[in-house]
Design brief:
283 residues, 10 strands, 7 helices, Phage tail protein beta-alpha-beta fold, alpha+beta, three-stranded mixed beta sheet, three-stranded antiparallel beta sheet, Ribosomal Protein S8, Chain: A, domain 1, 34% helix
């Protein structure tokens, strides 16, 4: 009887030990290690340095926004190079313009495309570090020539036709082969000459009476006034007939007061010399 009681007690203690060991292991498995926190904040992990030799391209690169120039948005007109065609284009083509603080060179390129006219910017515009001002224009249904004239006038420049293009150059500069319209005052050349009064008759008196010598009477020599044809002929002889064969030349006398001539600057110099010579001859 006592042996059976002892056996039962041993079995119970063994079972109790097994239960305790099982619970301890389960408790240890559930515990997770907690990292030790430092007093200082942890520094962010630096990314690895990129490879300098090879830079892999991403599979799909996002397209960057493209900044288009003003001229890239336009449809160009056919280019004209003859003087009369360029003049007709400037006088007849109406445009609507809205430019805000656009560089001068880009504005010129804009008008080249929409007008079909070539432009040349003279290098003397940039002398001494000068630079054109940016362009701000707003016009609605206005002729191309008017818009260009306004833009160039604001810059202090002028525009001439030369070798199939419009040359933009400083206001004070003229080329010798440039066609320019100038006005000359000529009322003194076309006015009648002053009257020619004969001088007095001279005589040497004789001691016995009478005159031993008397000058012959001076005849009045009439002088014909210059005509418009006389002036034109003198100018053409001075400058050369071939100088007036170009279509752009012009000659007009207004009310016998003003001579208006369209010619090259070299021809204008010779015209001025001819008119001065005619004045000297008329005196």
């Amino acid at each position: 009887m006592h042996q059976r009681i002892i056996l039962i007690l041993l079995s119970c203690s063994l079972l109790l030990s097994i239960i305790v060991l099982t619970s301890v292991r389960a408790t240890e498995d559930q515990k997770t290690p907690v990292p030790k926190q430092s007093d200082k904040p942890s520094e962010p992990t630096k990314p690895p340095a990129p490879n300098k030799t090879t830079t892999p391209e991403p599979a799909e690169k996002q397209a960057e926004p493209k900044t288009e120039k003003l001229s890239e948005l336009l449809t160009p007109l056919p280019v004209v190079t003859e003087y009369q065609d360029v003049k007709n284009r400037l006088d007849s083509l109406k445009i609507t313009v809205d430019l805000l603080d656009v560089p001068f060179e880009e504005a010129v390129e804009y008008f080249r495309i929409i007008g079909g006219i070539n432009f040349i910017i003279d290098r003397r515009i940039y002398e001494d570090g000068k630079k054109p001002k940016n362009v701000t224009l707003q016009f609605k249904k206005t002729t191309l020539g008017t818009v260009l004239k306004f833009m160039i006038m604001l810059q202090g420049y002028r525009c001439i036709f030369k070798q199939g293009s419009l040359l933009i150059l400083p206001e004070e500069i003229y080329d010798d082969d440039e066609f320019v319209t100038l006005t000359y005052n000529i009322p003194d050349l076309l006015a009648p000459p002053p009257p020619d009064f004969p001088g007095p008759s001279l005589a040497l008196p004789s001691a016995v009476g009478g005159n031993i010598w008397r000058s012959p009477p001076l005849e009045k020599t009439p002088r014909e006034p210059l005509t418009e044809d006389d002036i034109k002929e003198a100018v053409q002889v001075k400058t050369g007939q071939e100088c007036w064969e170009a279509k752009r030349t012009a000659w007009t006398i207004i009310r016998k007061q003003f001579l208006v001539v369209t010619q090259t600057m070299d021809a204008h110099k010779q015209i001025a010399e001819t008119l001065n010579e005619l004045r000297m001859h008329k005196r």
